[in-house]
Protein: Valine--pyruvate transaminase
Organism: Leptolyngbya iicbica LK
Amino acid sequence: NPALTQFGDQMSHLTGVRAIMKDIIETLRAGQGQSFINLSAGNPVILPEVEQLWRDCTADLLASAEYGEVVCRYGSSQGYEPLIEAVLVDFNQRYGLNLTERNILITPGSQSLYFFAANAFGGYTADGQLREIVLPLSPDYTGYGGVSLYPEALRAYKPTLDIDVAAHSFKYRPDFSQLEITDRTGFVLFSRPCNPTGNVLTNDEVHRIADLAAPHNVPVFVDSAYAPPYPALNFTEMTPIFRDNMVHCLSLSKAGLPGERIGIALGDESIIQILQSFQTNLCIHSSRYGQAIAARAIASGALAHLSETVIRPYYQNKFAVLADSLDRHMPGDVPWYLHRGEGAIFAWLWFDQLPVTDRELYQQLKQYGVIVVPGDPFFPGLQEDWSHTRQCIRISLTAADGEIDQAIQHLASVVTALYQPS
Ligand code: PLP
């Protein structure tokens, strides 16, 4: 094997949930014949109406004179002009903004956007000072765990818990008594709605975070992979918030286009320029085929419409099915708590005082043919030891209703046995 640099070593590890996915794929492969209920999927469901939209946009592109320009040529690093135009028109109209083409960058998926930001604004400055990437509310997206060339730059904050014991329900809140944004902060990052928890930070919480960042000129990146207007996977009222120091980051992956890798950053020109240079050095630009079909779906209004009428109701209904199954099957005397389902495509369960680790619970569920994701990889950057990180699991809202119900019956059996006094 060739010798690796510090970066090479850092980037050649699988971090977070990717490491678990490897185990899950091996389990599914080895278990030929055994049927598993897979509640671990991160891939969105292919919804027929949404697939049809992308087929129609593709047919339109194929039939147009534009086709050669789109796929047979390099383009601008900033993105394909008709997509930039479509997004700007839509956002300016929808939210009363004055964004210009200087405020936007198209990237190959939003994951790459966080990688650019993590290494442009986080890590060591020329004079050797560490600029932290602050995650104000842990748990959050596991993919943030691998974005920095300097993992020590990631700094996540433990939340406070709002618990409704009788309803077996809870919600994480940022702990403003602990959260620090200072001159040592490179940038702030959180997902809203949140993967894995389904949490939606309130407008007030978002403004408080931005208020803390503003005096230090610290950018706040809002990962809007599940937010309105596309894919609009919010089940509670929420409006995107735009402020000077804020970068609004979209993804079309949950709007049916994960394979085409489209991320979109909207923000201050000075920040966009830096991200764009990073992107030019790395990969020149995102695939133009995906951008050209996205331009059509956004300009026609079809994507926003399907997001509200097809994508959102699909997952919102799955969440209701899951919540109902939990209520019917889970033991009432066990301290299990479902995070409030305010959005995204996952549910998050916490077992207070769980007698085993989340990994052990994951293994025991596998014995019953049920695959979930243990919760501990969703606390990237949390530096203190906190038992709660080993008491949670993530359940994907992508399985069939009957499978969800059956899986929860198995979960109830495992958990009942675990909490039984010996
Ligand atoms: N952010 C969040 C919160 C996600 O859940 C995901 C994917 O699951 C991403 C970002 C990355 O998405 P993509 O790179 O496909 O845009």
Observations:
- The domain at 6-49+306-419 is CATH 3.90.1150.10 (Aspartate Aminotransferase, domain 1).
- The chain has two domains: 6-49+306-419, 73-301.
- The mean pLDDT is 96.
- The longest strand covers residues 185-191.
